[in-house]
Amino acid sequence: MKIDGGLFGDFEGVKGRIETLEADGFDGAISAEMASDPFLPLLLAAEHSEKIELMTSIAVAFARNPMNVANLSHDLNAYSKGRFTVGLGSQIKPHITRRFSMPWSHPAPRMREFILAMRAIWACWYEGKPLEFQGEFYSHTLMTPMFSPKNTEYGAPRVFLAAVGPKMTEVAGEVGDGLIAHGFTTEKYLREVTLPAMERGLAKAGRDRRNFEVSCPVFVVTGDGDEEREASRRGACQQLAFYASTPTYRPVLELHGWEEVGRELTRLSKQGEWVKMGTYISDEMLEVFAIVADPDDVAPRLVERFGGAIDRLACTFAFVSKEQREAAMQTLHDAD
Fold first, then answer.
1. Is residue 265 part of a domain?
2. Domain housing 96
3. Is the peptide bond before 115 cis (omega within 30 degrees of 0)?
4. Does 307 map to a domain?
């Protein structure tokens, strides 16, 4: 199992963070589209690292178009000498239409076409094929030599797709190189809903699971002492409540019989009761969504719960000591 660390924070700190992640043995560094652009930190990370993989997890696809993302991804992959993976996500309709002022319709078919359009653009650049992509949502039919990159030595970057529902998950299996499962995912949902949908997508395209990676961020509640552990617990409950309030993610709750909790959290979110919402995550729910354990037991519990199901773990917790980090990394790296 590969382990990815977060590359979050201000740009001034990127150099130190990427050097630490690489020195500590992390396999990848991820940048997310939150309060800043997800691509820019990875340019700095590429400059100040040598081997560690770099990935957006995620960049919002529908805030952009296939040509924008194809260009950005090519540049980062070429500059990092083949170490970049573009991780895309759809976001939800209110963000696309009201935050980004972009069109929203049929997210799974649109995402499938978005990725296929990028692949057509890259085929033009790397293989010399004519650019003749015409779809329902995107059309790219013009490319002149002046706008075609010349530094094509490392080829096309890999494409990972974030998905929660079965339709988007099937798209990931069909046209992506990897799947980014949502943090709001339980073992039951992953094994009973996500992985079967992914396999259907792979089968549709005649692809092999061995050439496909599943990445997943996992909630972890831990700490060195009661005070740290309680702070970790409160933070996890707040974040889980935020996710649970989103109707798009309700199928995860429904699988466990907690749909009423989701409806109440949606109501509270509309009232701005963000702090109160965290109190609705019961101990039972927390144990299902998160690894709740002492620091030394976190890695074995992760392997027990997700071994054989995921290939990459997005590390969401801080190691208490160097010794615990090294032991945990070894345990996770040894896991199938």
1. no
2. 2-224+290-334
3. no
4. yes
Neighbours of 160 (CB within 10 A): 26
DSSP-derived secondary structure for 150-217: S--TT-PPEEEEEE-SHHHHHHHHHH-SEEEE-SS--HHHIIIIIHHHHHHHHHHHT--GGG-EEEEE
Distance in angstroms (rounded) separating the CA atoms of residues 212 and 221:
29
User: At CA 17, angle to CA 15 and CA 20, rounded to 5?
Assistant: 105
Q: Which two tokens stand for residue 191?
A: 């094994």
Pairing of strands 290-292, 59-60: unpaired
The yes-or-no verdict on residue 90 having pLDDT over 90 is yes
* Residues sharing a CB contact under 8 Å with residue 152, sequence separation 6 or more, in sequence order: 78, 125, 126
Asked, for residue 255, whether it belongs to a domain, the answer is no
- Tell me if 155 is assigned to some domain: yes
Q: Are strands 213-217 and 158-163 parallel, antiparallel or unpaired?
A: unpaired
Alpha helix stretches (DSSP H) within the chain = 14-23, 40-47, 66-79, 93-94, 107-127, 166-175, 187-189, 195-205, 226-244, 250-255, 259-270, 274-277, 283-289, 295-306, 322-334
Lowest-pLDDT choice from 9-13, 97-101, 184-188, 268-272: 9-13
Number of structural domains found in the chain: 1
pLDDT tens track for 196-210:
999 999 999 999 999
Has residue 335 got a pLDDT over 90?
Answer: no
Q: What is the CATH number of the domain that holds 66?
A: 3.20.20.30
Mean pLDDT computed over every residue of the chain:
95
Cα dist. 78→64, 151, 275 in Å?
A: 21, 7, 44
| DSSP β-ladder status, 133-134 and 139-140 | antiparallel
114 backbone dihedrals φ, ψ, rounded to 5°: -60, -50
